[in-house]
Amino acid sequence: MLVAGALQAQSLELSRLDDDPLPVQVLAGDYDDRFVPAGDLAVRERSRSPRWWRLTARSGYPAAGQPQLVLRTPHLNRVEVWQPQSPLPVPRALVGAGIDRTTSTRALVVPLPGGLAAGQSVYLRVQALTPLPMTAAIEPLAVVHRKDMAHVAWRTAVLTTMAVVAVLALGFWAGLGERSYLLLCLTLIAQLLYLVCYGGEARAIPGLAELVGNDPRAGRMFGLIAVLASNGFLAHYLSLRQTQPKLMRVLTACNLLVAALMLVTLTTVAPLVAVAANVVLMVGLSIVMTAGVIGAWRRQREALFLLLSWTPMFALTALRMAGLVGWWGNPEWMDYAFPVGFALGGLVLMIGLSDKLQQLRRDRDQASRQATYDALTGAMTRPAIEARLKAAVESAHKSRRPLSVVFFDVDHFKRINDEHGHLVGDQTLRIIALRTRNRLRTYDLFGRYGGDEILVVLPDTQLREALGVAENLRSSVNCRPLSIDGRLLAASLSVGVAELMHEETAEHLLERADAALYASKSGGRDRVTGHQASRAKELVH
User: Fold this and answer.
1) What are residue 466's phi and psi, to 5 degrees?
2) How high is the pLDDT of residue 194?
3) Mean pLDDT of the region 416-433
4) Rounded to whole angstroms, how far apart are CA atoms 510 and 238?
5) Which ranges does the record mark as transmembrane (predicted)?
6) In whole angstroms, what is the distance from residue 279 CA to residue 284 CA?
7) Do residues 251 and 239 touch, judged by C-beta distance below 8 A?
8) What are the angstrom distances between the C-alpha of 207 and each of 202, 204, 224, 226, 271?
9) 506 near 445, Cβ under 8 Å?
């Protein structure tokens, strides 16, 4: 592409006339001495007033090669082309009057059936609705067709990718309620509309084609909306308000400037507005990139995804700004690099956002587990076992199925702590919890109620069966001493058992089990006591 561009620059010369005389005067050569060489083959206009340009062939382009005048990246510009020996112009535009649907939207194409001899000129009357550069070239018809096919393939892939990612983001937002996905969706949709407005695909969208063809403000508004949505998404994604408040304040100021530019855009179509918008865009991108570098230095995982997705966009935007002010040419690969950067940036950010949400889910699950299970014994915490007990009681009442609870604690546990220390006491609890939990069914509930007290919930279990389970738990502890730090410690359990009665609450069931536990202690410890309310007596096992 670079070699082809250099050859075109050697064989063609582009000049500009800072005036808009009558076509007959220009074609007659009255203004030939007033044309000023442009230096390259890029048509750059800062005013909406029509201007004349002249493209002169330094070497011949024979008619046998079917040469075509190609004005690449025309965006919203309108052009009238006067060929040698032709009294009437050929109008061309991507949208509106002069539209040519036989070629792709990559360029305005005008056939040169008579070819172009060395020294001959083609005159262009350009009405620029955007300040973006438009590059002139002469290409054979076969080359035009080949590039058109490549252009359609690239644009279809890019725009489809952006649309699919936007739909996915919208679906995730609807399903998860996470605001980041909505902001990403809005960013992608605004970027997509911006690309189709300036890329010409808007001519296939009813209503939008007429709006864009008559007024460049629609595309600018979509671009400004994309900047606002993008800044909002990135600030939320990186949690700038909490992690980097100073940069967040600067980014907020940029957003206010963008909002002001949106209001100005409603009142004027001056190209200066587009230049100002691009400057604010670069400032905003610089802030976001700075925040990403700082976040990556702090090992913020989402900042790495941001840098991966936004670094190419930052570089491409800087190159686009340089082309806008004429610091460098308008190479053909930029036609595809910029939209591809949009698509890949959105895709990488979608992956990064999913990674962030997955990490948040893991943190939430870990926090939930820490709130549900006791770190020392592995049993459920008191709030968790109480909640599960209430649910089990409600289920037992509805299904009319039995339910029993076993309440036990370690005999003389305070003495173990006093004589051997709290570390030994903790190990005692851990071993007892392990031994007793291994004697239960998989669906039985096991929770640490407080200190050395353990509550066991036995669904589908009557009192007599529960007493057998409680006896099994007791014997699992006193059957052999506990081995802790090279010493053997004897341990035993006092156990209380109660079965759920008709319309009884969970609180009352626990009170009866606790009363049975107290009875076991009073009876000499290391024993099981069952409480049966209907008989108003205690059963000692």
Assistant:
1) -65, -35
2) 87
3) 90
4) 48
5) 152-174, 181-201, 221-238, 250-273, 279-297, 304-330, 336-354
6) 9
7) no
8) 9, 9, 20, 21, 24
9) no
Q: Which one has a higher pLDDT value, 9 or 296?
A: 296
Q: What is the pLDDT of residue 372?
A: 79
**Phi/psi at 194 (5° precision):** -60, -45
User: For residues 189 and 222, what is the distance between their CA atoms, to the nearest angstrom?
Assistant: 9
The sheet carrying 36-37 orders its strands as 36-37, 12-17, 51-57, 121-127, 78-82, 90-92
Which helix (H) or strand (E) segment holds residue 348: the answer is helix 334-372
All residues at 6 or more sequence positions from 145 whose CB lies less than 8 Å from its CB, including other chains:
none
Q: At what angle do helices 179-199 and 334-372 cross, to 10 degrees?
A: 170
Which pLDDT tens digit goes with each residue over 443-472?
Answer: 999 999 988 999 999 999 999 999 999 999
Q: For residues 470 and 465, what is the distance between their CA atoms, to the nearest angstrom? A: 9
- What does the block give as tokens for 140? 């054979």
Rounded to 5 degrees, φ, ψ at 406 are -120, 125
Tell me which DSSP letter residue 145 carries.
Answer: H
Q: Examine the pLDDT at 90 and tell me if it is beyond 70.
A: yes
Whether the pLDDT of residue 433 is over 90: the answer is: yes
Domains of the chain: 2-145 (2.60.40.2380), 146-369 (1.20.1070), 382-540 (3.30.70.270)
H or E element in which residue 511 lies: helix 506-522
First to last CA, the chain: 93
Structure tokens at 387: 């909640």
The pLDDT mean for the chain works out to 85
Cα separations in angstroms, 238 against 40, 306, 364: 42, 9, 19
Helices (H), 54-129: none
